Amino acid sequence: MTNYAEMSVRAIREGLGAKAFSAREIAEASIARIAAVDPDIHAFLETTEALALEQAARLDAAVAAGTLAECGPLAGVPVAFKDNMNQTGTHTTCSSRMLENYVAPYTATCVEKTVAAGGIPLGKLNMDEFAFGSSTETSAFGPTKNPWDTSRVPGGSSGGSAAAVAAGLAAVTLGSDTGGSIRQPGSFCGVVAVKPTYGVVSRYGVVAFGSSLDQVGPFAKTVEDAAYALNAISGRDPLDCTSQDITTDFTANLEQGVRGMKIGIVPAFMEAEGLDAEVKAKVEEAAANLEKLGAELVEIDLPNAQAAMSAYYVLGPCEAFSNLARFDSVRYGYCDPGHADLGSQYEASRAGGFGPESRRRIMLGSYLLSAGVYDKYYYPAQQVRTLITEDYAKAYEKVECILAPVSPRTAFTFGEVSDPTSMYLSDMFTISINIAGNGGMSLPVGLGADTGLPVGVQLIAPQFKDQNMFRVAAALESCYEIERIAPAFADGKAGA
Fold first, then answer.
1. What is the pLDDT of residue 494?
2. Beta-strand pair 78-82/120-125
3. Model pTM above 0.90
4. How far is Cα 71 from Cα 57, in angstroms, rounded to an integer?
5. DSSP letters for 349-378
6. Start-to-end CA span in the chain (Å)
7. How far apart are CA 467 and CA 255, in angstroms?
């Protein structure tokens, strides 16, 4: 049976238009593959066969009427969504017992746009609980495994989204990124992973972690596929006041190359404590390839970037504490039975509904926003945020894109990183981009020399110039012959 998720977006659209296969065949084959293969990975929490077949029927009708071109850039493409994105009639659990039985009464704008662009919705994907984590180990429903090595984590919090693409279960998936939660799992699983500039994609209908930091973006096998996906979901949404009127075609400059472009290198990142030698070597190799392609490498300084981690773990928990206050066991969420007073019901329900990492961040946020502490930590964190944003703005006066590591290491084994502080360091190179609101993406550049696991490099663009990083990524992608699907899951091998 054909695995359509291994095909490119362009190939699926062209094949559908040429009647080489039908949308129903795509939907049925994709659902069947998930049933056969996903038990090995656990990327999906729920499949939406009925929705997939309904969309397939619409697409096949458009093919018959000769109007497929009007169906959008993702026509016929198997897609899936992180489980913090609402979709009418599906569970939106955020991988938490707190929302285990919650069924969405409305659809997130990013999901709606993906389906409106022709995507065939396959289901909802596993994640760290409420997006708190870097490994998908905090999911209340069990971890997702990395398709490249199932003894290792896929990264997080969008681990299910990355693993689904790497295992050939979906051609395009959506994730959310608050401090690296798209880019880090993209690097761990060897797929293209894009966090656009804050405001490029609507956050309406996405359960919030940090409202000033969260951004939705796509996972895909290739840069072009990711560009098609971002074309589909970007733009102004009247339901989200932070979204912007984006009309950029992110596929437009993929063939331009990088000759004459100035690419920034941050020496402090390359010499950072904890950066593994195999990751550093891959970033240096990518820099050398860009230079061979005609780009000019320019060293830049981000003097306040080292404070990004500290600022993030003030701002993030504060915003998380505020956003999670709504889960009170009364309006919705897990309700612990048998309590005589409201106070004890709140306490028991939130203790039982939230996992350890969620409770840790709620408690930290509560403390940081308390009287006498707020001025000491929250205000300085906002000041650091301003300084970091200014640092990036100054850097982009000299360069058009920045090249950096994504994660200090390749995927680690389950249980290997048990200390929360050590886990937080997984995002040491990605957090400053969320703090400043810039666009960033992870591009796979092959396997590490020591571990033989995928390594990604990070490309960072100026605000609302995400086309710059797509241009660089497309050029750099041409330098590598890498496997887009994890070998054990290619050509339907797994689950057979």
1. 54
2. parallel
3. yes
4. 12
5. HHHHHS-HHHHHHHHHHHHHTSTTTHHHHH
6. 11
7. 12
Distance between CA 444 and CA 328 in Å, rounded? Answer: 41
CA distance 155 to 147: 11
Task: Give the chain's radius of gyration (CA, Å).
Answer: 21
Give the chain's length. Answer: 496
Residue 364 has pLDDT above 80, yes or no: yes
Distance between CA 350 and CA 370 in Å, rounded?
A: 20
Q: Are the CB atoms for 232 and 246 separated by under 8 Å?
A: no
Contact predicate 139/130, CB 8 Å: no
What integer pLDDT is reported at residue 404 of this predicted model?
Answer: 98
Pick the closest to residue 428 from 234, 279, 258 (CA basis). Answer: 279
371 burial type by CB count under 10 A (0-12 exposed, 13-18 middle, 19+ buried): exposed
Q: Which residue type is seen at 81?
A: F
pLDDT of 495 reads 43
Does pLDDT of 268 surpass 50?
yes
Q: Are 82 and 174 in contact (CB under 8 A)?
A: yes
What integer pLDDT is reported at residue 330 of this predicted model? 87
Say which DSSP state 81 is in: E
User: pLDDT-based confidence at 493, cuts 50/70/90?
Assistant: low
Rounded CA separation 32/3 (Å): 10
**CA dist., res. 432 & res. 312, Å (int):** 8
**pLDDT tens track for 439-471:** 999 999 999 999 999 999 999 999 999 999 999
Residue located via tokens 């969420």: 333
**Statement: residue 496 has pLDDT above 50:** no
Return the pLDDT at 424. Answer: 82
Backbone φ and ψ for 352, nearest 5 degrees, come out as -85, -30
How far, in Å, CA of 457 to CA of 402, rounded? 10
Contact indicator for 137, 153 with CB cutoff of 8 Å: yes
Question: pLDDT digits over 24-70, tens only?
Answer: 999 999 999 999 999 999 999 999 999 999 999 999 999 999 999 99
Closest CA to 89 of 136, 121, 118, 113: 121
Give the DSSP per-residue string, 192-209.
EEEEPPTTSB--TTBPPS
Distance CA 257, CA 284 (A): 19
Please identify every residue annotated as catalytic. 82, 157, 181
Residue 153 in tokens: 């984590």
Residue linked to tokens 């390359």: 270
